[in-house]
C-alpha cells in the first residue's frame, strides 16, 4: 500500500509530467494572449469605422468596393462615392456638350 502511494507521489514529479503541465500552461497562456490580441484588433477595427458624411452609414476602410474604391478616412462610403462619381461624370459630360455648342457657336460667329 505504502509502496503504491509513494510511487504515485513520485510519478507526479517525473520530468514528463512536469513538461506536460508546463506545455498545458504555455498553451493556455498562448490562447489567452491570442484572445486578447483578437479583442484589440476588433476594437481597432471598430475605432477605424466612421460615419459616411453623405448617408451617415458606417464606412469600413478595410472594405474595397468592386470597382477598387477604398474609402479614405472620413470619406464617402462606396455607395455614395459611386453616386458622386456618376454625378461628376454627368457634370463633365454636360460641360463638354456645352463646350462643343460654344465652339460651334464661336465658329459660326467667325464666319
Ligand atoms: Zn454613404
Descriptive account of the structure:
The structure is a single chain. By secondary structure, the chain is mainly alpha-helical. It has one domain (2-110). Helices cover 70% and strands 4% of the residues. The protein has helices spanning 2-12, 15-48, 78-110, and strands at residues 50-51, 58-59. The chain has a two-stranded antiparallel ribbon. A hairpin with a 6-residue loop joins strand 1 (50-51) and strand 2 (58-59). It is rod-shaped, with a radius of gyration of 34 Å. The model has no long low-confidence stretch (mean pLDDT 85). Residues 52, 54-55, 57, 76-77, 79-80 line the site of zinc ion.
Describe the structure concisely.
Helix content is 70%, strand content 4%. The chain has helices at 2-12, 15-48, 78-110; strands at residues 50-51, 58-59.
Radius of gyration: 34 Å
Q: Average pLDDT value?
A: 85
Identify low-pLDDT runs.
none
Number of helices: 3
In the residues, how many domains can be counted? Answer: 1
How does the helix and strand content classify structurally?
Answer: mainly alpha
Q: How many β-strands, per DSSP?
A: 2
Note the run of SSEs as H and E: HHEEH
The largest sheet, given as strand count, sense and whether it forms a barrel, is: 2 strands, antiparallel
Percent helix, as a range, is over 70%
End-to-end gap? 124 Å
User: What small-molecule ligands were found?
Assistant: zinc ion
From the spread of the alpha carbons, the general shape counts as rod-shaped
The share of residues in extended strands comes to under 5%
Strand order within the widest beta sheet: 1-2
